[in-house]
Amino acid sequence: MSDQPDSPAPRNPWAPPADVPSQAGPGPRPADSGPPLPPPPPLAPGAEAYGDGAYGYDPSGQYDQPGQYEQYQGAGGYQPGYLMGPYGGWSPTPRNGFGLTALVLGIVGVVLSVMCVFAILGAPLGIAAIIFGIVGRRIAKRGESTNGGQALAGLILGITATVLSAGMLVTIGLSVNRGWLDNGSGMREPDRGTYGSPLAVGETARYDSGLQVTIDGVQDSGRPPATQGGGSALKFTVTVKNTGGGTENLDYGDVSAYADQEGDNPLKDISGQDGFSGQLAPGAVRSLDFIVVVPNADYESVEVDVSPGDAYDYAYWNVPVPVPTS
After folding, report:
1. What sign does the dihedral 80-81-87-90 (CA atoms) show?
2. Structural domain tally of the chain?
3. Which residues are CB-neighbours of 45 under 8 A, at least 6 positions away?
4. 35: in domain
5. Is 124 within a domain?
6. Alpha-carbon span 163 to 90, nearest angstrom
7. CATH number of the domain that 230 lies in?
């Protein structure tokens, strides 16, 4: 036999510090060791056992609970440790980035989608919010994040932003096609008969869409009823013709007559017409007769303004007032 002393036993890395007296297993503790140790808290939902055995590591053998790591300090003192994560390690930081990103992208996308200039950015931001929202919801269902509500809100806002942006882009496209954005006024302007340079009776104002407007048939319509308070009634005919290749919308078309070029005092229309409205097919013609009250014989002419539809600027005519026949 060798005279060499026995080699020291390998040190257990999980053993408590040397100054902490070891304790026997689950049996009674020494009388001077203080009150019994409190039971550790139960295992949190989703946590798993850590260390050796199905119940985790317990260097003293005093506790045998799932997922707990007891750390002893001083003379047998107890401190609860950390719950283990779903894969046996420490609990990871929640992956809340996807849900938060979806929410931010969705809010920004909705705001931009209702702005004409930036509407084109609403759709891509909305689609990105939808993608991040779906991923964020899946991560939340796996228990890896705590903001599933934010991910859902971002997903809904992303869908809203995409739909609003698409609708705004369609509206802008129709506006360009109909000429609402052709010039500074936002509407189609006539080639002739502008403010300050009116057309004469029988002359035609033409729009680039193919729509043509003419005023003719001017005549005295006699004295208006006494209740209208005028000296004479002026009758004229407004004709709208569609020479273009597409159907034109005449809704909100307007015909007005003024006794002054400033357009401050419109003459009363007693014809009963509501103006032009509806659709005008290619090649179609529509005419309406209007009767306005001329206050007295001092007016030699009046100004008539015609807008054939809400997408068209006004064209102007100087219409002479016929000498009353009665």
Report:
1. positive
2. 2
3. none
4. no
5. yes
6. 43
7. 2.60.40.1240
Residue 142 lies in a domain: yes
Amino acid identity, position 62: Q
Residues 104, 211 within the same domain: no
For residue 127, what pLDDT is reported? Answer: 95
- Chain position carrying tokens 């007032």: 321
Is the domain of 205 the same as that of 293? yes
Instruction: Quote the domain boundaries for residue 154.
Output: 97-178
Residues 203 and 314 in one domain: yes
**Residue ranges for the chain with pLDDT beneath 70:** 1-92, 176-186, 225-230, 260-264, 297, 324-326
Quote the pTM value.
Answer: 0.45
In this structure, is residue 78 part of a structural domain?
A: no
The string of pLDDT tens digits covering residues 132-147 is: 999 999 999 998 999 9
pLDDT in tens, 236-294: 999 999 999 999 999 888 898 888 666 567 888 888 887 788 899 999 999 999 998 88
